[in-house]
Design goal:
With 190 residues, the protein is an alpha+beta fold. The protein has helices at residues 6-11, 13-21, 50-64, 96-113, 165-175, and strands at residues 33-41, 69-72, 87-94, 130-134, 154-160. Strands 2-3-1-5-4 form a 5-stranded antiparallel beta sheet.
Length: 190
């Protein structure tokens, strides 16, 4: 049996299941994924120098398949030893096929490779968007473990067109994001 890509599943079975569960007949009113933003903050104390900026941009471009944009500070903050115009991060905005391929790899390969993984948090931001934080980039198969010189974390922001968290959570579950089981609180009476 061949593997159905996320692109095909979003337009086929996932679409039909969302129509039934959300009781919506209009296909265009169903929630869909708008974009995925992958962001890496560059900490000045741990990642000093142009070599680290180059390492982060090369790793991020291998992970996403797209060249990252360097983010510079808007103003100087003396407590954090940041000057105006200094590189403080790198980000990539994915849309379309690249976004779907990245999400497919994230669900299929990356999340199962995380050590002691017990599922993702079920909390969204209140507007139908979801954020995932990863502690190190070595869980991505595009980066061989031998080549890793420095470990850095990255954030993945999934932006949907959903109007509320419940419909966005349903869409993300259908895509395959492994959410944690909600615990039922039991009170002991004395």
């Amino acid at each position: 049996m061949t593997y159905a890509t996320l692109h095909d599943r979003l337009r086929g079975p996932i679409l039909q299941e969302l129509k039934v569960e959300l009781k919506e007949t209009n296909v265009h009113a169903l929630p869909r994924i708008e974009k995925v933003i992958v962001n890496v903050g560059i900490n000045r104390t741990h990642m000093e120098g142009k070599e680290m900026v180059e390492l982060v941009t090369n790793s991020l471009s291998k992970i996403t398949g797209q060249k990252p944009v360097l983010r510079r500070s808007r103003k100087a903050i003396s407590n954090f030893k940041i000057r105006e115009g200094q590189v403080v991060g790198a980000m990539v905005t994915l849309r379309g096929r690249r976004m779907e391929e990245f999400l497919d790899r994230l669900v299929s390969f990356v999340l199962p490779r995380i050590r002691d993984f017990r599922g993702l948090s079920v909390k969204l931001d209140g507007k139908g968007n979801y954020a995932i934080g990863l502690r190190d980039q070595t869980v991505f198969p595009e980066l061989p473990a031998d080549d890793v010189q420095k470990i850095f974390g990255l954030q993945i922001q999934i932006t949907t067109t959903a109007k509320d968290d419940d419909s966005a959570r349903l869409l993300l579950k259908k895509i395959g994001l492994p959410f944690r089981q909600e615990r039922k609180e039991t009170r002991k009476t004395a």
